[in-house]
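Quick one: structure for this chain?
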Amino acid sequence: MTDVIVVGAGVVGLTTALALRAENATVTLVDEGRADGTASWAGGGILSPLYPWRYSPAVHALALAGARLHPCLRDTLVERTGIDPELRRDGLVVLDAEVQAAGLAYAEAQGIEVSSVGIERLRALLPGLTPDLKHGLYFPEVATVRNPRLLSALRAALEVDPGVRFERARRVEQLVLRGGRVQGVATPSGNLCADRVVLACGAWAGLLDLPGGRLQIVPVRGQMLLFRFSPPALEVPVLFEGRYLVPRSDGHLLVGSTLETAEFDSGTTAEAAAVLEEFARRLFPMVFEGQAPLRHWAGLRPGSADGIPWIGPWPETPGLYLNVGHYRYGLTMAPAAARLLVESLMGRASSFGHVADYAPENRRSATQGRAFSVGTAAPES
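Got it. Here's what it folds into:
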């Protein structure tokens, strides 16, 4: 029998499995194998909350810890698989005039490098930027990662590990319990056995019936556009009015994203494409002149009522652990969230200062009776 079942093979489930293997625990990864809709590959890969000063300390702290662990994760994956997740530290330019003072105060309080840039520096960082925007904040330490390559590298590292078993195209219908303890999970093709189960299945975690009730986690759709330029049109990611542009090293350029409550519909809409395209053309009119998007897709983020993830043991059920509800920042938080989860599962104390904020026993009371809305968990406006 495997030591731990991890439900979900997105970035959170995969990093959790990697962290468990570092503790010599055998792992079975169970994943429904959806062709689309998952959040891990769909976003822009910015390793920072957007406008982090608008979030709770718990969200900011976990995201910052995760971002700091990504270089080590990249090095490990390149060594084991040869796949480069393309971690780039190009910084981030924030163009919203109304956030300049708040951004500077946040950076000073957190000891984060930032500079206020005027028109000449702005034009050097962002060639082709509309002349309507003359000031910005440049955060040079912000990094990006290429999500699909990160996922490919994580899967490749785990697939060759003899202590990991993948159970693909298997939908978890419910937990298997005996005497109130976890004994595994039930799938349409039979039960999988383990006395410890970690739920890391993103937005779909809210569909499972748990002892004590369902989690208050709902899908929040985000739509993206992809362009291609040769040579690359931008070198530095840009944030403005809650949307962003993220360049890749090969000339691809991501434009995102929307925030929509659309149940589990991961389809795209012409309306969203028009909004994103208009945003890009308004910021860089000459750059995008005559350019058409190559692709248009959507992902479903796991939204929680206050935007804080659930990490740790489920109080009603010995052996059940959660690593869910990371909303827009699962990619950023994943290495730190995995470390916290494994420390909890192994019964070790953590030096991380906000552990209690993520504990399911505390999260339940914090969100009891609160309905999720895009506005509460997405303070980007």
